[in-house]
Design brief:
Blueprint (H helix, E strand, L loop, with lengths): L22 E6 L5 H14 L6 E4 L8 H14 L4 E6 L5 H13 L4 E5 L20 H11 L3 E6 L10 H13 L4 E4 L5 H13 L5 E3 L1 E2 L5 H11 L5 H7 L6 H21 L4 E5 L5 H9 L8 H7 L1
Parallel strand pairs: 1-2, 1-9, 2-3, 3-4, 4-5, 5-6, 6-7, 8-9
Helix pairs in contact: 4-5, 6-9, 9-10
């Protein structure tokens, strides 16, 4: 075993002769315009040959993208070979409304829900559950299991959820979600492999026996990434700004830098024993595709299908 899980073995390249034994999934968001929809479907088609375990579609605060999310998920399920998963949150909806949405997904052939508490509709304000709604993600998971036998993914935070009083309390909350019936947890993005690997070990030490999948965000827009990080409690290293400095008018160079950083992170996670990856694509396929390629995944591989069925 490699004594330093965050680096390749001495004398070996980080991506040398990788077995392609990874399982991947991809996240998209529902498009707002015809042009954005075209970009989304180009990305879906580009990533489809990699045979991901599933692809998920996000859900706006307060259900603001409810119809677009449903339409996007249903079309993926209907027109591609992919298994589509729909995000669902507790924000500004009663239990009855959420249960009705879940039933509609089940009737449309959707068997996988990403169940999240959700962010407040107004950034900076504390989360307040609907008076007749699910109070948190653990309650949402339990409620969804009453609606239908969904496969359920939930979120987790390697650097602790910003609303948690402590890392221990955050782990307790994750355990409640798994105990309620969640099948796996997908992490918020992060920029240190050691950060995630320490979190993985803490999860195991807390007695949580579930797949913990790292969420990977390939960064090409630092300002946008800072906005995302402020919402989820992720830290952005100062060197990230420096690496993208001077590249505002050089999009191709930005892409190369972004791919290098994300690929290195994934390579270090792979060296640390990680074989499942979830990519936040931002509806752009190229970076995620390139990283999967470096990790040994090739179109037409059935490894993901075998891992999912195992």
């Amino acid at each position: 075993m490699n004594p330093n899980p965050s680096s390749a073995e001495p004398g070996r390249h980080l991506f040398e002769d990788l077995a392609g034994d990874i399982a991947v999934s991809f996240e998209f968001f529902p498009p707002k315009t015809a042009k954005m929809e075209e970009t989304l479907w180009e990305s879906v088609k580009m990533l489809e040959p990699l045979a991901p375990r599933f692809v998920s579609v996000t859900y706006g605060a307060g259900g603001s993208t409810r119809e677009r999310t449903h339409a996007t998920v249903a079309r993926i399920q209907r027109e591609t070979s992919l298994q589509a998963a729909a995000h669902l949150t507790c924000v500004e909806a009663s239990r009855g409304e959420i249960d009705d949405i879940a039933r509609a997904y089940w009737e449309a052939g959707i068997r996988h829900i990403v169940a999240l508490r959700g962010d407040p509709p107004e950034q900076g304000k504390a989360f307040a559950p609907h008076p007749d709604g699910y109070a948190n993600a653990a309650e949402l998971v339990a409620g969804l299991k009453q609606v239908a036998p969904f496969e359920i993914s939930v979120g987790c935070h390697p650097e602790c959820h910003p609303d948690a009083v402590s890392p221990a309390a955050d782990l307790d909350n994750l355990k409640r979600k798994i105990d309620a019936g969640a099948d796996r947890a997908i992490s918020q993005f992060f920029f240190s492999a050691d950060c995630f690997l320490r979190f993985r070990d803490a999860v195991a030490a807390a007695g949580i026996d579930a797949e913990i999948t790292p969420g990977i965000l390939p960064v090409s827009n630092v300002a946008q990434t800072r906005k995302f990080a402020a919402m989820c409690g992720a830290s952005i290293p100062s060197w990230l700004d420096r690496l993208f400095e001077g590249l505002d008018d050089l999009p191709a160079a930005r892409q190369l830098v972004a791919a290098t950083l994300a690929a290195e992170l994934c390579g270090e996670l792979y060296a640390g024993g990680i074989r499942e990856f979830h990519f936040y694509t931002l509806n752009r396929a190229e970076l995620s595709y390139a990283i999967c390629h470096l990790l040994g995944l090739r179109p037409g591989s059935d490894r993901n299908d075998r891992r999912c069925a195992a």
